[in-house]
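User: Is it possible to get a 3D structure for a protein together with its bound compound? The compound here is cytidine-5'-triphosphate. I've pasted both below.
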Amino acid sequence: MLPAYLPNSFAAVFGGGRPIDGGRTLKDGRRILGDGKTYRGLFYGIFFGVLAGSLQTWLNLRGFEVLGIEMPAFGPDYLSAFKVIFALACGSLFGDMFKSFFKRRMGMNRGASLPLVDQLDFVLGAWVFTYLMSPAWFVNNFTTWIIVTVLLITPLIHLATNIIGYFAGIKKEPW
Ligand code: CTP
Ligand code: MG
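Assistant: Yes, that's possible. Here is the predicted structure of the complex:
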């Protein structure tokens, strides 16, 4: 999940500048996505997610493990691995954008909290993209127990990192 987790944090660190919706609003008078979704955040987020996945693949090839846990290979060859890593990283930020679109339609301002949805949007986005990209890899690696575990621990990891980001002055809200 690392290539899907990191884009969020790096988008928050490096984001800013031109919003993806270009400041445009829909007929409901609200922004399409809002100022919290920027090109810079998207670009750096995907970049660091792909970098993390590439590093994991490299470590896997060298037989590196932590506490007996191997690094993921993400696929049988470089191209398949890259496709999975890229789908995890892109899917995570597109899931997050999709959520922002619906938050705006629900009349919620940028940064307003939508519990559980804010913590799992990027996980679902990453899974949908990865499933569409490499269905066989997804089904083989994301077994039911792994899916359940990820759904349970991600909100906790997300909340913990956001609280750190908040006190470090990177995030405006601690969620
Ligand atoms: N960010 C960005 N570009 C993205 C995603 C995130 O620049 N594609 C940055 C923004 O600075 C954003 C921060 O990361 O404020 C935190 O992201 P998130 O919590 O998803 O955005 P919110 O500001 O809470 O906006 P929303 O209500 O739309 O979720
Ligand atoms: Mg938010």
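The pocket of magnesium ion (ligand 2) is lined by residues 111, 118 (CB under 6 Å). The mean pLDDT is 96.
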